[in-house]
């Protein structure tokens, strides 16, 4: 999935003619953040900030996710590049996804354990597969298919969220931390006070929306036990 889906994303970017843009990443005190990674699943052009916190983006449209060790990730539109982009200290340590156990079977590159007390229902259409875990009226949804998702929550949802907690989760492809894919893990509260969470990559997502704190905590335990089956780079080269 990663190989085919990311190749499609690279092709879409290559078609467009885009002008470079500059920006700067700083911490809460206004100090430059060196080594911050600007990452988009739609592009194979990854940006890393220099000692002055400055990056040069080869495109001017779209949304990127910014990661730096010790800071909470942040999702921003390129329209925000004109002002310093402030990163806050991380609320939780970085988490590297473990490999799934040999022989574990399911759909997709990201896997979660089946938990007692839930109903499981699946749907499929051509290359797209969906699975729903239900607990009473509460649901956790998993969707998998080419270009199904750009690896980020949709903008209207992001704009609505409060109490946003964007956590640094990564897929490490080698033992030296040189080949790394970011995994989006964003949670927050909707306007009605209910809980929302998105965990995903290009072409694959886990998502719940509108849950009570208790139901969200139940599904969070499943999502926090996630493992990954990918064992080699696919499509895009990992950020360096």
Structural descriptors:
240 residues, mainly beta, Immunoglobulin-like, 2 domains, 9-stranded mixed beta sheet, 4-stranded antiparallel beta sheet, 13% helix, 38% strand, globular, disordered N terminus, disordered C terminus
What topology emerges from the helices and strands here?
Layout lengths: L1 H14 L5 E7 L9 E3 L7 E2 L5 E4 L5 E5 L6 E4 L7 E3 L7 E2 L13 E2 L7 E7 L2 E8 L2 E7 L10 H6 L1 E5 L2 E4 L7 E10 L5 E7 L2 E8 L1 H11 L3 E2 L12
Parallel strand pairs: 1-7, 8-14
Antiparallel strand pairs: 1-4, 2-3, 2-5, 5-6, 9-18, 10-11, 11-12, 12-17, 13-15, 14-15, 15-16, 16-17
Q: What is the percentage of strand-forming residues?
A: 35-45%
The structural class is: mainly beta
> Approximately how much helix is present in the residues?
10-25%
Mean pLDDT: 83
The major beta sheet can be summarized as: 9 strands, mixed
Based on CA atoms alone, the radius of gyration comes out at 18 Å
Quaternary structure of the protein: single chain
Overall 3D form: globular
Count structural domains.
2
Number of strands: 18
Number of helices: 3
Distance N to C terminus: 22 Å
Secondary-structure element series: HEEEEEEEEEEEEHEEEEEHE
**Any low-confidence stretches, pLDDT <50, length ≥5?**
2-17, 232-240
């Amino acid at each position: 999935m990663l190989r085919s889906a990311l190749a499609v994303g690279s092709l879409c970017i290559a078609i467009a003619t885009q002008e470079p843009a500059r920006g700067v990443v700083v911490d809460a005190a206004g100090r430059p953040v060196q080594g911050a990674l600007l990452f988009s699943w739609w592009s194979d052009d990854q940006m890393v900030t220099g000692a002055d916190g400055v990056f040069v983006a080869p495109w001017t449209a779209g949304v990127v996710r910014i990661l730096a060790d010790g800071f909470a990730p942040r999702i921003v539109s390129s329209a925000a590049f004109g002002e310093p982009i402030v990163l806050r200290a991380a609320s939780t340590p970085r988490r590297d996804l473990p490999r799934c156990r040999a022989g574990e079977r399911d759909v997709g590159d990201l896997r979660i354990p089946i938990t007692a007390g839930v109903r499981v229902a699946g749907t499929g259409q051509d290359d797209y597969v969906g699975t729903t875990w239900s607990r009473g009226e509460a649901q956790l949804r998993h969707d998998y298919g080419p270009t199904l998702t750009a690896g980020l929550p949709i903008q209207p949802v992001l704009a609505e969220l409060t109490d946003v907690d964007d956590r640094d989760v990564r897929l490490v492809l080698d033992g030296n931390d040189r080949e790394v894919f970011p995994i989006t893990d964003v949670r927050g509260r909707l306007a009605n006070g209910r809980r929302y969470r998105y965990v995903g990559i290009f072409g694959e997502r886990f998502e719940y929306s509108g849950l009570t704190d208790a139901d969200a905590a139940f599904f969070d335990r499943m999502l926090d036990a996630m493992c990954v089956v990918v064992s080699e780079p696919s499509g895009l080269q990992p950020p360096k």
